[in-house]
Amino acid sequence: MNYRLILSVMLIGASSVNATTKSEKAAQVNSHHYFGETPPQLAPLLFEPKIVSLDGLFEGGTFTPDMSEFYFTRKNGKYKQRTFFVIRYENNSWGEARETNIKWPQFSADGDTMYIGKHYFKRTKTGWSKPQSPGDFINDMAHGRSVSASGTYYYTVYEQPDVGALYYSRVKNGVHQTPVKMSEDINSGMYIAHPYIAPDESYLIWDMRRGDGHGQADLYISFKQPNGSWLPAINMGPTINSSMQESSPQVTHDGKYLFFTRGEWRLKNDGSRNYVGKRFWVDAQVIENLRPQL
Q1: What is the pTM of this model?
Q2: Residue 105 in contact with residue 115, Cβ under 8 Å?
Q3: For 148, phi and psi rounded to 5 degrees?
Q4: Angle of CA points 272, 163, 215, to nearest 5°
Q5: Is 66 helix (H, G, I), strand (E, B) or coil?
Q6: Is 289 left (phi over 0), alpha (psi -120 to 50) or beta?
Q7: Cβ-defined contacts of 148-151 (< 8 Å, 24+)
Q8: In a 10 Å sphere around its CB, with 0-12 CB exposed, 13-18 middle and 19+ buried, how is residue 86 labelled?
Q9: Which residues is 185 bridged to in the sheet?
Q10: Rounded distance, CA 111 to CA 234, Å?
Q11: Are 66 and 82 in contact (CB under 8 A)?
């Protein structure tokens, strides 16, 4: 893996001798965000911009916090195996998508830390550092992790083949502490995976299969109470969840949108199964609409 890949920094909104209005400046800054797609409201929309979805083979991806890069995957059709790409915003336009060996990265809010699998990388003056481990606890991780602004890891451990559990590990004096298993109110389903923790740890979203679901795996959410405890998990409802499989939630760095994957397993001619999923997005107000009034 090319760990020293340098993220380009987008330079827009430079000073001009021509006077511009505040709204015009905002348009200059934001016109390329989300590839110019029409934003969703409270009903999820398919996110499949033509610039990254050649022949409809785009699966999903993630933007860097400054919106200057988009890391994404394509699968099926001519891509017999999932293939990873990056596209960069340079010289006031999106460039050509190129294959990359950076797989499923996540980024801290300031863009200075990149999380891949069980490792993280720090930005340096010459690129990215060598892979670093947050501690031995991460060796038990399976099917996803998310890191809060304070550095707390929320991650899944599979204690049985089909039963996972969510844990968290806080940082104290620069060292991650012994992981804590979350309560049964959270760990009360099968195939628990892909947690997303809000930067301030006020809510947690993940996917799992449970009796009150709408089909396969659904998205669930729990809110943290003022005393630090977590409320019981609640299904995010039939507008978000369907008879298909919803998974891999992630809220954008600007806090505006919730992205998630909706898909299903399909049988191939040889009898094997192949997962086909697409990325959807919805206004993050759906989260606030579920927040209980305490």
Answers
A1: 0.87
A2: yes
A3: -80, 175
A4: 65
A5: coil
A6: alpha
A7: 148/197, 148/198, 148/199, 148/200, 148/201, 149/108, 149/109, 149/199, 149/200, 150/201, 151/176
A8: buried
A9: none
A10: 31
A11: no
How would you classify the pairing of strands 234-235 and 245-251?
A: unpaired
CA distance 145 to 153: 7
**Token output for 89:** 């915003």
**DSSP H/E element including 25:** helix 22-30
231-256 burial code (b ≥16 CB/10 A, e <16)? bebebbeeebbbebbbbbbbbbbeee
Full pLDDT tens readout for the chain, 294 residues: 443 433 333 322 333 333 334 344 344 446 789 999 999 999 999 999 999 998 888 999 999 999 999 999 998 888 888 999 999 999 999 999 999 999 999 999 999 999 999 999 999 999 999 999 999 999 999 999 999 999 999 999 998 887 899 999 999 999 999 999 999 999 999 999 999 999 999 999 999 999 999 988 999 999 999 999 999 999 999 999 999 999 999 999 999 999 999 998 888 777 778 788 899 999 999 999 999 986
What are the tokens at 129? 């550092």
- Token pair for 223: 């809110």
CA angle 180, 183, 188 (to 5 degrees): 125
CA–CA distances in Å: residue 173 to residues 129, 150, 176, 188: 22, 12, 8, 32
